[in-house]
UniProtKB/TrEMBL annotation:
Origin species: Terracoccus luteus
Record domain Malate synthase C-terminal: where: 414-534
Start and end residues of each Malate synthase TIM barrel domain: 161-406
Pathway this chain belongs to: Carbohydrate metabolism; glyoxylate cycle; (S)-malate from isocitrate: step 2/2
Name the record gives this protein: Malate synthase
Entry EC no(s): 2.3.3.9
Amino acid sequence: MSAPGPLTVDGPAVDRSEQVLTQEALEFVADLQRRFGARRDELLQARRTRREALSREPVLDFLPETAEVRAGDWTVAPPPPALTDRRVEITGPTDRKMAINALNSGARVWLADLEDANTPHWANVVGGQVNLYDAVRGTIAFTSSQGKKYALRDASATPVIVPRPRGWHFDEAHVTLDGNPVVAALFDFGLYFFHNAAELVSQGRGPYFYLPKMESHLEARLWDDVFTHAERTLGIEHGTIRATVLIETITAAFEMDEILYELRDHAAGLNAGRWDYLFSIIKNFRDAGPDFTLPDRNAVTMAAPMMKAYSELLVKTCHRRGAMAIGGMAAFIPSRRDAEANERAFAKVREDKTREARAGFDGSWVAHPDLVPICAEIFGETLGDADNQLSRQRDDVEVTAADLLAVSQTPGARTLEGLRENVTIGIQYVHAWLSGNGAAGINNLMEDAATAEISRSQVWQWMTNGVVLESGETVTRELVERVVEEQFAALGATVGSDVVEADPLWDRARELFVTTAVAQDFPDFLTLPAYEEVLRLERA
Ligand SMILES: CC(=O)SCCNC(=O)CCNC(=O)[C@H](O)C(C)(C)COP(=O)(O)OP(=O)(O)OC[C@H]1O[C@@H](n2cnc3c(N)ncnc32)[C@H](O)[C@@H]1OP(=O)(O)O
Ligand SMILES: O=CC(=O)O
Ligand SMILES: [Mg+2]
């Protein structure tokens, strides 16, 4: 381990933080930061360079310099026993109650989310690690403020825990090394790995991760180097760590083989992260003119030609390489209070999971415990006695660069209603995020950082490209500002105007939404200025 520097932790008090923020664990994180922090910075610069090239010429293609990797006959390491059956995976934040509910849900895997579904308030970041520590050991329990008691039903049969650290772009402001914030991904990964790797191995499981928002195979190479170093440092056998990579950026879709190749000793699969994928398409082609403006957010389904091409290429690539293909999130959430909304959500999720199972995915995500049985049933019908569909090759699938970029073939209209929904969802989500909830049910849809990014970036794109709506109106800054005023007033009617007035975060949410949706310089991530706001509020 390299000599630990003056790693400073400076955040509000969090219950039991001393249990995870130990001297040894922080030294482990400091070592990761020292070794890999600068490479992360270079990779972020490479992202900016690639995006500048795209703004000059909006074309992407499979990389000529890695043609040999794509043509080569190689496979990733076989899945470990704990990850051979992933027919249903529940996702959710790592707060204590939801962690227990997820672990009792009957899913095969719990994606313990420190990312899209989590606001990185220090309490969530550190509290999440405390909860994961207890979850790994089967000791997690909780009593709600109403006195309801939560505990594991059967600690020996809980889903496999697969945390998702934050993406490479994020820093953890509360932890600094030599005065600079540490890379949040290294912090999230490092703490979890340090405390839990050996314990998980002793249980016949392992330190498994989902890796979000990568934009290139070089970013995967960095993760692979981090994994190898972390295993060596703690004396954990090489290849014990297993990662499932979200293919959720348009550039990564052109590098699926390469990403698996870089991680081949550590790879478990790829996941079709459809929401960030849409965001990435809008973001990268935001100034590329009408061919790249998508219709209303709700009109873009997985049946759109470019989405079908992306998800089928993912299955084909995975199975050729012996890796699991995991489906994405249908955003419809059930309601225990509204039978009609519940039925609608069940039907939509059924349709989505059926399409995925038929396409060859090995399993998929659900956002809510009530959806676990549906996903398990649908994949069960396809899988029969098998654990997965790894042996099913999709040699029939041929996907070209043009297929992945067929944005203009996406059916659907651009409507004033769509603009209104983007605005109202965006503001409500930012409010939830600032309040500490990274996932929220809004209009019976699951909203998280990825879906909110679509909303605000679509407003930016429509405005910047002067999209003419079905109503005949052109999207201008004035129109967006008018819609923001109207939707904000309407929110008062829904949420209660006294509630909105009493809570200053509503105004901050509106301002942040407007800033990120209409700013001339498009912020790369909505969550970056939102995090600045969280830090400001913390200091106030
Ligand atoms: C694009 C992507 O990255 S998708 C992946 C990231 N996003 C997510 O993980 C979102 C996951 N889902 C959620 O967070 C939640 O389902 C929400 C916020 C959308 C809705 O949650 P709620 O409003 O609490 O829903 P609801 O009231 O129906 O919940 C009923 C019960 O199920 C629990 N529950 C709901 N969703 C989950 C979940 N994903 N994991 C664990 N428990 C859950 C609730 O905690 C509640 O428990 P309780 O009865 O003990 O109080
Ligand atoms: O993380 C998943 C996504 O769809 O985004
Ligand atoms: Mg995502």
